[in-house]
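Task card 7
Instruction: Convert sequence to structure tokens.
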Amino acid sequence: MKRSMIDSDIRRQLQPEIEKFQRILKRLKWFGQLSRSRSKLLNALNPFNYVSMGTVLNLGGLSGDFRYKILKPMFVNFLMATNVFDMPAALFARYLEFFDIETATPMQTWDQGTQRIYRELSADFRDKIYLGRPVRKVYRGDSDVVVEDENGQTETFDEVIFACNANQTLMMLDKPTFLERWLLSSIRYESELHNHTIIHSDASILPDTDVKELDTRSNHIEQYGARPDNYEITYIMHNQQPWAKRSDKPCLVTYNPISRIDEGKIIKKWWFQHIVHDVRHVTLLVPMFRFVQGKRRTWHCGAHTLINSQETCFVTGLVTARQLGADYPFQDPEARKWFNFYGRVMYGWRLRKA
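Output:
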């Protein structure tokens, strides 16, 4: 089913369910005021933290067509969350404060993307960064941490910060504690669907229709095969991230590719895992990380330590750096308040506030 048809047949077919879902969403957003308060206590009182979105959709009597032709394609595009309906209903609704189910939504992003952030943050110590040295094992002693790469070479450090997936962290850690092993192995990743991507500029894979996806849409989605959630998704990046419009070529990212893409227009191919933010993860596992943070000279940051978005993942790194003694680099008072709120979620009373 082509995404462009949502403007015609699918929308007409599912319009009653779209309206019903908007009513459900309105109720979820009312309770969402508790989650926007920057109070951990009020946040915890939101009952939809403990109910999956799938349960809410079941209770609302919403069909599979609505879920797999409207909701899931949108979430797969910006979250890559294959198990999206396992997500707490409160978190699901929070994402929809930024993305509308019927219209494309421009994003506020960093100019030139996260690459620019990394480049500028590391400007003063780029010569101390090792690239192309995959880590095989991390050994932790009483006074230092020894990191061994795949060739058996070692480097010694005072502390270690893991900014990779939890399962990768567990494979690298030598002699993890029982709590580390349980916590890191409890993080779920979806690796069956939506885990291959191609970055390219081949606009020929987009349909030639009156909708003109290349100029107007954030993504183009096609369903294939027997499963209702088998999608090829092409993220039309230049329509959602304004800085990309400066390119003289289309900026496209195709997930789960089945279309033939011109090899001469491919920039990079990538395989990845995507975290599953289910109710158990958000309500139990995230708060448990504070009990391993800093233990045995080891720290953790990334999507699995908070919630999944580029911004909050970036905050997990800043918060962890702050715990190790770094200064807080921004002046905006609102950003500072959210930094401290997310920091309290990660570290509790041990947080070094901004």
